Amino acid sequence: MVRVIDSALELERQVLQDGFLPFFRCGIPGFSIEERTAPEYWFSDEEGPWEWKGPVIREGHCAYGKFFNKKAGYVSLEWLPHLANYRRSRRYAKDEDTAALDDVVLQTIDAEGGATVKELRRLLGFAGRRGRRRESGLVDLMPVEGKISLDPILTRLMMGMRVVIADFEYNVDRHGRPYGWGVARYTVPERLYGNLDAGCTPEESRERLLAHFKRLLPGAPERKIALLMG
């Protein structure tokens, strides 16, 4: 029986227990923070999943980013090396030009040690203006309008396990209280978690991931598991 998530501590516990946990519904009933958290933590003044993201990341036991079919979620450090080993053997850019652009952004993030979208736009000289908040922008609340958007680039880098979210940064009012929607700071996972060597081939990591998902989600269609595995 899955316990209801009612705190950052319980959220972290369930990620560590399952190894993986998407933020929103993913097509497999019950396998998301959205479904495991009571409505009062989403639609009241109570702190909830949105506010727990930073504290869970800062504990250092779970990585966070757009890891599940381009949507946000967590992976435990136990499984992070295998997910990175498998995903880094795959290609998420549609062509060489796209891959080259992704690499420029990745190298910039790595060289800086971490960066927000605003900082990346300044460093890379990308033009654009703020847009409205969208559910799909869970880890990036500053979509860009212009010739080049960082959102799909960062999504590909996170799907490829090249980039993760290091934390969320908030504005602070005159009483020292954070407010507004947190802005993601991106970094490379090795800066937070060290060496990600899985000690096996990408195909062996894939087989371990598949076996784990089948045990974790008995009866789930293989096509749904394939989407989660990326």
Q: Could you report the average pLDDT, rounded to the nearest whole number?
A: 89
Please tell me how large the radius of gyration is.
17 Å
- Indicate the overall shape: globular
Spatial strand arrangement across the major sheet: 1-3-2
**Structural class estimated from helices and strands:** alpha+beta
Number of β-strand runs = 6
Order of helices and strands: HEHHEEHHEHHEEHHH
Helix content: 40-55%
Unreliable runs, pLDDT <50, ≥5 residues?
128-146
Number of domains: 1
What is the end-to-end distance? 27 Å
Number of helices: 10
> Main β-sheet, in a few words?
3 strands, antiparallel
Classify the beta-strand content into a percent band: 15-25%
Give a summary of the structure in a few sentences.
With 230 residues, the chain is α+β, with helices and mostly antiparallel strands. 42% of the residues lie in helices and 16% in strands.
Structure description:
With 230 residues, the chain is α+β, with helices and mostly antiparallel strands. The chain has ten helices and six strands. The protein has helices spanning 8-18, 33-36, 49-59, 80-87, 96-112, 117-124, 150-159, 189-193, 202-216, 222-229; strands at residues 20-22, 62-68, 71-76, 115-116, 164-172, 178-187. The strands form two sheets. A three-stranded antiparallel beta sheet has the order 1-3-2, with helices on both faces. A hairpin with a 2-residue loop joins strand 2 and strand 3. Helix 1 (8-18) packs across helix 3 and helix 9 crosses helix 10. The protein is globular, with a radius of gyration of 17 Å. The two termini are 27 Å apart.
